[in-house]
Amino acid sequence: MSAKDTILRRIHTALRDVPPAERPEDVRVARDYRLTDDAPRAEIVQQFAERVAEYKAAVRVVREADLVATIAAALRARGISRLVVPAGLPEAWLPPDITPLRDTPPLSHTQLDTSEGVITSCALGIAQTGTIVLDHGLGQGRRALSLLPDYHLCIVRAAQVIGLVPEAIGMLDEAAHAGRPLTFISGPSATSDIELNRVEGVHGPRTLEVIVIV
Amino acid sequence: MLFVLFVVKKVRIVKPQSVLIELQPLFEKNAPKALANTQLRRNMGKATQTIRGKRAAVVDEMPDWEALREAGRAIKARTLRHLDSYLLQLEDSVTRAGGSVHWARDAAEANAIITRLVQQQAREVIKIKSLTTDEIKLNAALADAGITAIETDLAELIIQLAGEHSSHILVPAIHKNRAEIRELFMRTLGVAELSDEPTALAAVARTYLREKFLTTRVAISGANFAVAETGTVCVVESEGNGRMCLTLPDLLISVMGIEKVIPSFQDFEVMLQLLPRSSTGERMNPYTSLWRGVTPGDGPQEFHLVLLDNGRSDVLADTVGRQTLNCIRCSACLNICPIYERTGGHAYGSVYPGPIGAILTPQLVGVEHARSLPFASTLCGACYDVCPVKINIPEVLVHLRGEVVRQQQDTGGLRAALEPENLAMTALAKLFESRLAYEAAQQAGKLGQLPLKHDGHISWLPGLLGGWTAMRDLEAMPDETFREWWAKRKAEG
Ligand code: SF4
């Protein structure tokens, strides 16, 4: 008997007490936790910005008209001139004095590793937890792009910010069914493994900066 | 119902031993050693207190926490009661997305599958911390095949470089202070100069491992969840080493216990709230990666998922013990446990320490191999209160204690049944089954011990029970019992 058959048979035997007619839906899962946050939009966006900042990520909230100047200032402050730019990111966002590194043809891991930073958009932002979600679609690039560079600048539109985790999962359902990879990012990479001191920046980008367009 | 587990255990000849670090983990032998190590005790105390406080803060801000816990419990109950169909659905979803699914009855089978897959491509693999791979002793199996496994979590790396075992599910190197880590890095990684600043220590690990991430072609991970409906596998982490392992190599192998499957993608809305808050005490952990099979042009182009039984189907068969498989390995029960706080993880002699280890390990390997573990608890119930998937750990402990006693009597015949320890255990098991009786006995004990108590210790017990005190120094029952202290502590908030 194959391992698969053995395991399935063991499980079947183990579940003797489950009536044969029971269907999974018969085991009730009450979803009476909060499903939506009905706070005013402005408050939700405000909470998002605050909670991202609590993870020690720099957050700037700006009007669309000031976006390019803000991006330019952020990059200048870190001395970044060569920036990884995923396909589909609005060209208008790019300050004139940077040299974009495009992923067509695909950049090598070494090129990404030695780049100075990456700019991406995102799929959505979760206010409750201060989380950015990437579905690696247009403007976000494949997963390695937002992983290997030491600096990640993420642009979030206020309209993409939702209140609660269940709202986010609902909006990501389609992407999940399409089999897209998803990355949830809450602050820069961190460890508490040395005497429980939180140290920001182990393997992922050591600096995460977020610009929210309102 | 109690006997279901018992019968299954008796007919089985080979039990998976690998969950145990040593063949016979004796909590009562290891615990005194651990208690004597002050560094360990200080670190454990600080660690558990810190995490406990953080958890409480982020749980308290959730008005719907109890509803989420209940949903978490119900999702796992639904999964476990229909585990076979969910596993088949998962296999189908992953396979259709270009992944391969393997089934492993036990540790040896899982190790053989993984070794074969790796051998075709590499002599070195990078790994993400995974209790499941610890459980099957994968690294040793790979080493036997001439394959080096490099642990990439900072704490795991520290432990691996030091040649030790982990002492905490979440912060495995909790027993090492920064001076020790600095010394270890300088000795093993050939760093000439290094301060003991945590940032500097983390930077050394970053540099050392970056080269490995960029050059190693095979990665091995565990899995926190896998969705039957969509084939989505999920890894929750902090440092980014997980993302590296899941993204950069050509071949990815993920190993998961069969109980880690969840029915639908929607179930993440519960689990991704429960896990980080219970685990690291954060609203969300830094990184959560979700993927399905193979994504063309993004990440590993070959993906294998290994589904591991290794005793889990036996746990499933016990209707009391079944809930143990709800566990999402958050470690909240460790951090709240007064016994764990004082002894640390090594005393349990098991891959799974703390309250969850005390119930999971004996069930996975058979109570006869881990007799003392179900007794490594005061039954205070704090672990149940914090468990995000509502595992009634005290209930399972009491159930297993009864199991230990019944089995000792069973294998030893009448003589064994009349041995003082067995008699005492039988009486204890009866007592533990009822909270009221237990509390009444504690009160009676306080009075009954008066003639024997000297300087807070009892070193001699009359009659048949003398055997017990010959081997251990019995701590006299304090004027205030733990349960009384705990109730008061809780009431005081
Ligand atoms: S038993 Fe509950 S509290 Fe303990 S690790 Fe598992 S899920 Fe967490």
Kindly provide the radius of gyration of chain B, computed on alpha-carbon positions and rounded to a whole number of angstroms: 23 Å
For the residues shown, what is the average pLDDT of chain B? 79
Spatial arrangement of strands, main beta sheet of chain A: 1-12-7-4
* Distance N to C terminus of chain A: 62 Å
Instruction: Characterize the largest beta sheet of chain B: strand count, sense, and whether it forms a barrel.
Output: 6 strands, parallel
The DSSP helix count of chain B reads: 23
CATH topology of chain A: Rossmann fold
Compute the number of strand runs of chain A.
12
- Structural class of chain B comes to alpha/beta
**Architecture of chain A, CATH level 2?**
3-Layer(aba) Sandwich
Give the name of the CATH superfamily of the domain at 55-307 in chain B: NagB/RpiA/CoA transferase-like
CATH class call of the domain at 55-307 in chain B = Alpha Beta
Which of globular, elongated, flat, extended, rod-shaped describes the shape of chain B?
globular
Strand content of chain B: 5-15%
Order of helices and strands of chain A: HHEHEEHEEEEEHEEEE
Strand content of chain A: 15-25%
Tally of DSSP helical segments of chain A:
5
